[in-house]
From TrEMBL:
Organism: Niallia nealsonii
Domain RCK N-terminal: residue ranges: 2-118
PROSITE patterns with a match to the protein in the record: RCK_C (PS51202), RCK_N (PS51201)
Name of the molecule in the record: Potassium transporter Trk
UniProt-listed GO biological process terms: potassium ion transport
InterPro entries: NAD(P)-bd_dom_sf, RCK_C, RCK_C_sf, RCK_N, Trk_Ktr_HKT_K-transport
Pfam families xref list: TrkA_C, TrkA_N
Domain of life: Bacteria
Length: 219
């Protein structure tokens, strides 16, 4: 069944979400106060509307409360982002995701009941920092302030070793949840599975434990 989404704000972030949702076969309505932006998307979405989202009547007349999920991707105008979120909340929208510009913005969004707050620039910055610090870290996903999932490329040091002989659980307190080997993926690998150089290990654990493991595997 197709889900119905509304994206407010068609900057790079909102535009990219919109295109991906369409790609995934979803119904998307877009709203932007900039007519040029709307024209850019008018051919690919089910409904494209030029309008100011801080105007409650605009959102009401579009039946915004019937959408399953509304994404507020207004960037620089923090006031408009907050006011839009507040109106969506008051109109009874079930799920609201909002892009935050900074920590203060996030605090307010939390207070007024945004369901999901994202910081694309900050999060991407963190991921890239991990990658540039260690060539072996291919990707990084923060689960909480202290826990992450990390993709680590196995160096020659790990080649031929198994999780059992490396004693990964006991020594590092981390879990290898999957191994990517070329096109194959081994989910929940056995402790006796030999690791090969250039395997990509998908590791979950506390940041400090993962860091110790990263140092061990650095080539
Ligand atoms: P990105 O980094 O995603 O490109 P940004 O953080 O630079 O975006 P802006 O360009 O300020 O964010 O805003 C994103 C979009 O939101 C713009 O296309 C802008 O026209 C639209 N927008 C801003 N305020 C409103 C509003 N009140 N109602 C509708 N659209 C709005």
């Amino acid at each position: 069944m197709k889900k119905e989404f509304a994206v407010i704000g068609l900057g790079r972030f909102g535009g990219s979400i919109c295109r991906e949702l369409i790609e995934l076969g979803m119904e998307v309505m877009v709203i932007d106060k900039n007519e040029e932006k709307i024209n850019e998307f008018a051919n690919i979405v089910s409904h494209a509307v030029v309008g100011n989202s801080v105007d409650e009547n605009v959102l009401k007349s579009l039946g915004i409360r019937n959408f399953e999920h509304v994404i507020v991707a207004i960037g620089l105008d923090i006031q408009a982002s907050i006011l839009t979120t507040l109106i969506l909340k008051e109109l009874g929208v079930k799920k609201i995701t909002v892009k935050a510009q900074n920590d203060y913005h996030e605090k307010v969004l939390k207070k007024i009941g945004a369901d999901h707050i994202v910081h694309p620039e900050r999060d991407m910055g963190k991921r890239i920092a991990h990658h540039v610090v260690s060539n072996n870290v291919l990707d990084y996903l923060e689960l909480s302030d202290e826990h992450s999932i990390v993709e680590i490329k196995a160096s020659t040091r790990l080649d031929g070793h198994t999780m059992m002989d490396l004693d990964i659980r006991a020594r590092y307190g981390i879990t290898i949840v999957a191994i990517k080997r070329g096109q194959d993926i081994i989910v929940s690998p056995q402790a006796t599975e030999p690791i090969k150089e250039n395997d990509v290990l998908i590791v979950i654990g506390a940041d400090s434990d993962i860091n110790r493991f990263e140092k061990k595997v650095m080539s």
